[in-house]
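Q: I have 125 residues here and want to know how they pack in 3D. Can you give me a structure?
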Amino acid sequence: MAVDAGSLTVQGGAQIASTTAGLGKGGDVGVTIAGNVSLSGSAAKGAVSGISAAAQTGSVGDAGQVTLAAGGAVSLTDGAQISSSTAGQGSGGKVRVSSQGPLSLSGGGSIAALASSTASRRSCW
C-alpha cells in the first residue's frame, strides 16, 4: 500500500494499516508526505491512531514493513503509533521513519517493532 500527500493528519483511532491473518505475508505500508505529519489519539474502543503492519495471532506469514518519509515535522501524541508487529509464526517487519523537520513523541506516542511470545523475531532499523 502506498500513500502520497502534501500533509497528513491521522486522529481519533484512524489508521493506515496492512494485516495478515493467514499464510501470506502482510503488505508493506509506504507513506510519503511532502510536509508535516501529525498522528494523535485513539478511538472510544481503544484503537490507537497510527500507521502499521501486523501479522495476527495464528498467522504464518510475516508482517509487512512500514516506511514513513516526511518533508516536514513528524508528531506522535496521545498513544499514536507507527509500528510493525507479529503475534504469529512469521517475522515482524522493519519500521523506518525519516523526517526533514523535528520528530516529536509525547503522551505515549511511539515508533515500535513488536513481537509476542509466539513470534520468531523482531526487527527495527
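Q: Anything worth noting?
A: The chain has one domain: 2-9+16-115. The radius of gyration is 14 Å.
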